[in-house]
Amino acid sequence: MKWVYVNQPSVYIRKYQLTEGDNTKLVIKYNLDQQSVRISSEENHRLFFIDKTGLWHNKTILKNEYGVEIGRLAIDKVHGTGIIEIEGKKYHYTLQNNSQLVIFEHTITNPLAVCDMAEAPSFASLSANKYSNEEYACFLLGICWYLFPLTAAEQLEFSGATVA
């Protein structure tokens, strides 16, 4: 899998495609102005919001289109590692060789996903903080949404609805 940057006519929107071979698995559109991300696949389309919190705005919170918190993101840019907790499940990630985003549950030797980031713009300049925490959240949310789709009951639970 790899993330590919797609030219977007608006300066406020960054569009990326998650591709596998010649197939586009999903598209994310990150709106810098609204701090939102639209994730689309052939079957589903979702809208998420990315909030910053904490004393120095160092925590990232992910919310669904209804404003319900679905996850959190912790980033250590110095070491290129972090944790994404999404819908009650925790995953670790690391950036290897400044060109691969690796997601794993318990050990890096057994990754859940490895995404090539070479075709995302200036990804090699991670040490210069090219991407914001919000953009990392978009990439990670997109991968998790693609790899671990929710069941119908989980979708109801995290949308704030009650199951009768």
Question: What is the compact description of this entry?
Answer:
The protein contains 2 helices and 11 strands; from the N terminus they run βββββββββββαα.
Biggest β-sheet description: 11 strands, antiparallel
- Going across the biggest sheet, name each strand in turn: 1-2-3-4-5-6-7-8-9-10-11
Instruction: List SSEs in N-to-C order.
Output: EEEEEEEEEEEHH
Anisotropy-based shape: globular
- The secondary-structure class comes to mainly beta
How would you state the average pLDDT, rounded?
Answer: 80
The rounded Rg comes to: 15 Å
Q: What fraction strand?
A: over 45%
Number of domains: 1
Q: Could you tell me how far the N terminus lies from the C terminus, measured between alpha carbons in angstroms?
A: 39 Å
- Overall helicity: 10-25%
User: Quick one: how many beta strands?
Assistant: 11
Uncertain regions: pLDDT < 50 for 5+ in a row?
A: 122-129
Please tally the helical runs, counting DSSP H or I stretches of 4 or more residues. 2
Overview of this protein structure:
With 164 residues, the protein is mostly beta strands. The protein has one domain (2-159). Helices cover 14% and strands 46% of the residues. The chain has helices at 133-147, 152-159, and strands spanning 2-6, 13-20, 23-31, 36-40, 45-53, 59-64, 69-76, 81-86, 89-96, 100-104, 111-116. It has an 11-stranded antiparallel sheet with strand order 1-2-3-4-5-6-7-8-9-10-11, with helices on one face. Mean pLDDT is 80; it is low at 122-129.
